[in-house]
Queue: 2 jobs
Job 1
Amino acid sequence: MIKFLHGSWAYLVILMYIITLGTYFFVFVKNKIFDYSKEFRLASFTLIVFTIQILLGLATWFTSHYFEGIRNGQMGVYMKNATDRLLVLEHPVMMLIAWLLTFYGFNRMRKAMSSKKKYMAVIITYGIAFLLILGRIPWHNWMK
């Protein structure tokens, strides 16, 4: 059940990143003043949605047969297989890095004084995080 939630929630995460990055980009280009009732809430909602996804992912990882294999000393076996390596190491580590980037960008946005700096903080950090997410999603295994 957790694996299904983790796979399904990922669609919402991707959608939120697309909406947030699109909104921040177009508002930045139009040179509008930062609106806390809209842009701040959008960035914070994206962070919350991704945080829930991280928690679901960690629950999935810790209850998977891969974690049991790691505890039994089979990490070397997993590292020799590209699919297993992606699921055991690359995907979780990249998602945590993407989450940290998102969190960092949100905090930079909160502390920035000018609207342009607020927009750029989110566009850059959320954009890099989104690319990391897209690059390390196990597409071949998604929603199985």
Job 2
Amino acid sequence: MKTWKTKCGYAISKLLAGRSNVFLLSHDGKNILVDTGPGRSWKTLDRRLRRLGVVRLDALVLTHAHYDHAGNAARLQEKYEARVIAHIAEGPFLARGENNAVGGTNALARLVVAGLGKYFARRARYEPCRPNLQVDPSFDLREFGFNAHALHTPGHTAGSLSVIVDDEIALVGDAMFGIFPGSVFPPYAVDTGETVSSWGKLLATKCRLFLPAHGSANPRQLVLKDYDKRSARREKGGCAGPSKIDR
């Protein structure tokens, strides 16, 4: 199990990988889970939480309300007494167990959406869950014992959230991917411009490492490189250019 630690001793452990990464944030007996994986991963997730001695989750932060991120939210809310936190724009989808639609950001992804989007939407429903807290635009997690906050990072979906820990490590959901060589750009998004703008918000936190829900960790320099490249394209097209970022 891969684990990262911040300068103040907050531990971030990757409990699930594969279809979707799930991270446990732990410190001084407190635990926050970020995302849940799909419903079919419940037995593995439950077993790994129990193996770590976790009997209660102080909070569950959902980066967004897609089945592979929120599929076990209702079970965790019931069994682990987790207070479920989601952005207000994701709340209605979560309460219905539905996936909000996204578009493809490249030719292959657009073909997949066009050919399989409606079929996928029917097959990928999950157990509905009513969030305990619906936030907008951000939420301080200090009340749960962590120097961390949930930050609104739209683009993949309108209500996507990231979790910033110690201004050092960010758990970014699908705001970035860690799969494609030389790029962190996600293959699916509702708004690619907002996606790049959200990278700027994440880089402004001074985080050095960005942990996506799909793939491996992205170092700051890789994110900066992709942000500069795509911001320059937007500027050339008449959109806002890159903001001041600490490099």
